[in-house]
Structures are given as C-alpha cells and as structure tokens.
Amino acid sequence: MRKFVLCCGSGIVTSTHIRKKIEEELDKRGYKGKYAITQCRASEAATMSDGHDAVISTTVLKTNCACPIIVATGLLMNRGTQEIYDQICSFFTDED
Amino acid sequence: MQFILDFFSTLNSLGAVVVMPFIIAIMGIIMGTGVGKAIRAGLTVGVGFIGLNLVTGLMGTYLAPAVVQMCERFGFSLNVIDVGWPAAAAIAFGTQVGSYIIPVCLLVNIVMILTGTTQTIDVDIWDYWHFAFTGSLVAIATDSIAFGLLAAIFNMMIIMVLGDLTAKDVEDSLGLPGVSLPHGFSTAYAPIAMLLNWILDKIPGVNKISFDLQSLQDKIGVFGEPILVGTVIGLLIGIAGGLKYNEVLTLAINMGACLVLIPKMAALLMEGLIPISDAASGFIEKHFSGHGQMYIGLDSAVGVGHPLTLSVALLLVPISVVLAVALPGNQFMPFADLAVIPWMFVLITPVVKGNGFRALVIGVAVLIAAFYIGTDLAPSITIAAEQAKFDFTAGTQISSICDGGNPLTWAIYRLNKISPIVGIAVVGAIAVALAIFNRIRIKKVNAAAE
What we know:
The complex is a heterodimer of chains A (96) and B (450).
Chain A: E1 2-8, H1 13-28, E2 35-41, H2 45-48, E3 54-57, E4 69-71, H3 73-77, H4 81-89
Parallel strand pairs in A: 1-2, 1-3, 3-4
Chain B: H1 2-13, H2 16-30, H3 35-74, E1 80-82, H4 85-94, H5 96-114, E2 120-122, H6 129-142, H7 145-165, H8 167-174, E3 179-180, H9 189-202, H10 216-220, H11 226-240, H12 245-288, E4 295-297, H13 307-326, E5 332-333, H14 341-345, H15 348-352, H16 356-387, E6 397-399, H17 407-418, H18 420-449
Parallel strand pairs in B: 1-5, 1-6, 2-4, 3-4
Helix pairs in contact in B: 2-3, 3-11, 3-12, 4-5, 4-6, 4-16, 5-6, 5-7, 6-7, 6-16, 6-17, 7-18, 11-12, 13-16, 17-18
C-alpha cells in the first residue's frame, strides 16, 4: 500500500482538482486499491510527509520533507502529464 | 410562458443552494460532460454550499456572541466577522452575477486572445469567482446586474493584463515557466508591492535592512496550522469575552473545528466544479493556442509554497490579531481568512527578492489596508450573502480578507458607489487602456521573437 501526500496552497482547490486525475490514472494503470492519498496545504507538507512514500505538490515546495517531492504543476497545465504519472508510479514495487 | 417565469422565480427564491446545482448541471450538459456527470457535479456543488453554510452558521452561533461580549468589555467595535474566502467564493457564485460569470469570463478571455490583448489562456475557472465578487458588490451599489457584470468584465481585463506583465517574475522566482497568474486577489497586490518596494528603496538607511525569514517556517510552522490557530483564537476570545470556563472550552473547540471544516467543505464545492472547469479549459486550450507566445493562467496557489511567503504569513497571524484590536476605527475581526495571507504574498515575494524585512513591512501595510477595506465593504458583502441565502446571525456583518480586503475590488466598488455611470466609465477606461498597452507590448515581444 503506497501512501502519498497531495499538497497544494490551501489543501482545497488545486489538490482536489488533480486528485481525481491522479486517481483515475493510477486506477487505469492497474493500481486501484493499492494507494492512499491525503490532501494537505503547503505549510503542512513537512509534518505530514512522515510515513508517506512521496509528496505530490502543485505548489513550489522548498521545505524539508521526509520523503521525495514530485512536482505536479504540469497536471494543472496538461503539460508533461505522462512523465508525472510515471514518476508517481515508480514508487509502486512489485509486491503491490 | 407564465409557468416558466413562475418556475424560475420560485427557484431563485429558494436561493443559491437550489439554483446553483441547476446552473452547474445545465452548464455541464451544454459543455458535453454527459448528463449523469453533470447532475452529480451540480449536486456536489449544492452539497458543498450547504456544508459551508453549516460551518459558518457554527461561527455565527458561537463566535459572534463571544466577540460581541468581548467588544462590550473592552470597548472594541469588532462586529465584522471574517468568514473567509471559501464562504466569499460560495457567496460570489451564488449571486445573480455569479450565475453568469463562467460563460462571461470565458468569453472575455477568448475575445482578449483574439484581439491580441492578452497572452494568457486562463484555465483557472474556479478563480472567476473573484470577478463575480467584485461584480456582485457593484450590482448592489448600482442596483443593476448589468453594471455588476460590466465591473466583473473590467476587473478581469485588468487582472489578465497584470498577470501577463508579472509572468516573467513568476517564471524567475517561482520556477514556473510558461505560467502566468491572473488571480483576482494575488495579482491585485503586484502593483502595490512594486510601489511600496520602490518607496522603501528610496528611504536612506531603511533601504539597506534585510533579514532572512525563510527558515522560520520549518521551525515553528506547526503553530500556523488551522486547527491550532482556530482553537487558540477561540480560547483568547472566550477569555477576553469573560465567558465561563466551560463556554470558553466549547468555543475553542468549535472554532478549531470551523477552520478545519471550512476547507473541507470548499473542497466539495470545488469538486463539483471540476467537470465544468475541465471542459471549459480544454475547450479554450484546444481552440485558442497558437497566437504567438502564450502563457497558461493558473491559480496563484502554485506559488504559495515559497518559504518566504509561508514564513511571513505565519508571522502575520499574531500580528493581524494585534492590529485588529489596535487599529482605530477598525471593525474587522480576522479569523477564517488568516489562512489566505500566503496568497497576498505570491506576487509580493518575487518583488522583494527574498528580503524578509521588506516582505514584513509590505505585509503589515497591505493588511492594515485590508482591515479598513474589509470594514468598508462589510455592509454590501452581508447583503450579497443574504441574496445568496447564506445563513449568518443577524446583528453582525460579515466580510473576508479575500476579496473583502482586496484594494482593486474596493476601488472598483467605491468608484461605482460615487456614481454608477462615471464609475463604470472610469474603470472601463482603465481596463481598455491597459488592454491596448498590453497589445502593443505583445506585438513587440512576438516581433522580437521572430
């Protein structure tokens, strides 16, 4: 079970927007039921990152997170989306 | 015919909670999202609206009386409660201007692209609400929906141009190439930041001061979390209001709850808009790219994570509370919108180039202005809320920092209050002048690129 933190400015608007896209894409790639996503705001990203596999962020993040940060602004712009999804999927191991 | 008129007037009298789902569903069907998805989207928006209503009702039940008691005891006059931007957005979308705003703003963007007056394809449909907010206030001031819509259109034009002009800064300081931020709130602060920064540059001695605030966020960021901020402020107000200890504790947990629940409800509202937003932005991107170098207009939330922005915003939370009490003639009590302070800084941070001192000084200046503006706009915002059938305790007024404290919104509103025709003409003239200026600039940029 992979755990992702989805972070944006307020934890409301942008993160909700791309959460659906990410979930649909992950399901399409066969990972349905194998991941959990928590939404949060930029200021909470560092504290929330404990125990998660990656932070997916739509806002510039320069804080110290306990796990790698994936920049997902491209999902808002429809640019480089496949690369971003590939990055997210790289966290799934063969056991999942 | 009479039946149709009666149907719509009954619908309207039921308020935004019922009307908005219909409008969203119809828009969804027109834009081809499919009937099922459109209906679900409309209902989700309605649920989000009701959820927000419930939470702000909680604020009205618990916070408002405590604030009133606190004011009586200490002689403050803080009777304008800050309900926050999610409520402001819900109100804006729920007014009559708001119900037209999505197609109107899409049209403005398309026309601006075709006339070469903007380089931005604005895919941030959600943030059209800022323009609807301005428009709704003007509609109330001028008693005319038409003037309100015009004000919204001119507001958007001004922000679109400012977004184009600040795009280079966005790219450099926030590392977001190809992106511009035509945001009704954040972008309004760009010219103000530039002006204040320029003034600070000219003061001998002061212009040399600089300190680094960026590490603050990592160290004490936890204190800025909504759940803590809400509970602490609830405690403080309860104690200041002379409530009994059990009432103080009840107030505190309720306020912590409000600041956590408001974003969750807003997320629902947003979720309902997503199919519409995606359809609209897909449409505009597909048909209107390729007019020279284009930017994608995004929510300024993408720039909020900058460490200086977050640190200064954190410092400003306690400073705001002190300011609210200390400023003479201020009636605005900051609460839910303490969370929106980072958005003020998205375009201020690039301007001050990492200088924590300047960021703080500019932040305090614009906050002071925001409190007075929020006080000034409170009566009209409260009327708009009533029109959208938004629940709040009678006897207090509501406002917000975003956009209740927005200087551009305030300027447009005040001009129209002085005189509707002259006001809209002045605002329109400024908007058109900026558009033409931008068009000339864009031509030069595209010519140089070839």
